[in-house]
Write a structure and sequence with these properties.
The chain is an alpha/beta fold. The protein folds into 2 domains: about 210 residues, Rossmann fold; about 80 residues, Threonyl-tRNA Synthetase, Chain A, domain 2 (2-Layer Sandwich). The protein has 9 helices and 14 strands. Strands 5-6-4-3-2-1-11-12-13-14 form a 10-stranded mixed beta sheet, sandwiched between helices. It has a 4-stranded antiparallel beta sheet with strand order 7-8-10-9. Helix 7 packs parallel to helix 8. About 10% of the residues have low confidence.
């Protein structure tokens, strides 16, 4: 029986390395949420196959929003009440927000052909080519293309203007295009905000009152290729959660509370956490330094201060 009053929605990908290593001591935050019995919902571009091992290792038993906002994945028997629109995917009951495959694969092929732009899907690569392009062992690389909804691909020789044209036409056709850094994602209807609202409604029905939603998102420097995607996730959190906590990689103009100097060669890049009210995003409060030894305790205190 669910007996929680707050649900925590977290953008997962900045806390996992390409090989699945936990970054920024994220496991400490998960342990704190578990102690408070607050469900932690992961927002990620990863597939259910890619998440199997991290979920087992980190003891994550709550729902997650996968494939860049394509669907909500519910563990078996997590809710007695179910959404009216669900499909079964492996061990999960899924609330689909985007159209299931092969819709995205067909849309990518048609769009690339119409515009005469080379868009190479990961699904089309040989095992050797997949390993070369992802830099992962064969078993891990294959999990990337085991997708339920979106299609991952890369542009081969396309110019910036060609990519811009591709993005414009994708929007005209009602497709969702996201830059994930190394690869691009194309889906027929991915929407993080809608996923959050769908899952939030299930928590509200289970509890019979509104479960307060807290979003935890990670910003990135403007120079990174993933900036647009991260901003999309943060906007979705702000639009769908009652409160949003922003972890920012951009240099703060104000004083960082609890800041400490790095004293090792493997120190993480200087980042900070802005606790942002959804209605006052331009006026961040409670700014913390990510490498402060008590940063996660401070973030948990901010969550509990409601």
């Amino acid at each position: 029986m669910i007996r929680r009053t707050q649900t925590i929605f977290v953008t997962l990908d900045p806390f996992l390395s390409l090989h699945g290593a936990v970054l920024h001591h994220f496991d400490q935050f998960l342990a704190g949420l578990d102690e408070q019995e607050f469900p932690c919902i992961w927002l990620t571009g990863l597939t259910r196959a890619q998440l199997d091992e991290p979920r087992r290792r980190l003891g994550h038993n709550d729902p997650f929003i996968g494939e860049s906002g394509c669907g909500v994945y519910l563990p078996e028997d997590y809710f007695h009440l179910k959404s009216g629109n669900t499909i079964r995917l492996g061990r999960f009951t899924c609330i689909p927000v985007a159209k299931p495959q092969p819709a995205a694969a067909e849309a990518l092929e048609e769009l690339a052909t119409d515009l005469d732009i080379a868009a190479v899907s990961l699904r089309s690569l040989s095992p050797r080519e997949l390993v070369q392009n992802t830099g992962l062992p064969a078993s891990e690389a294959d999990q990337i293309r085991m997708r339920d909804f979106d299609e991952l691909f890369f542009f081969a020789g396309a110019t910036e203007s060609g990519i811009a044209k591709f993005a414009t036409e994708a929007a005209v056709r009602g497709l969702n295009l996201q830059n994930l850094g190394t690869f691009w994602s194309l889906s027929c209807g991915a929407d993080y905000a809608k996923c959050i609202r769908e899952l939030g409604a299930l928590y509200d029905r289970a509890l019979r009152y509104h479960a307060f939603r807290v979003g935890v998102g990670v910003d990135s420097p403007a120079s990174t290729s993933e900036t647009a995607t991260r901003e999309t996730r943060i906007k979705a959190l702000a639009a769908s959660c009652d409160r949003t906590l922003l972890l920012s990689g951009r240099q703060s103009s104000g004083h960082l509370a609890g800041a400490t100097e790095a004293d090792d060669d493997l120190a993480e890049p200087a980042e900070s956490i802005h606790v942002v009210n959804a209605a006052q995003q331009s006026r961040p409060q409670n700014v913390f330094h990510l490498r402060s030894p008590d940063v996660w305790e401070s973030v948990l205190a901010a969550i509990l201060s409601r």
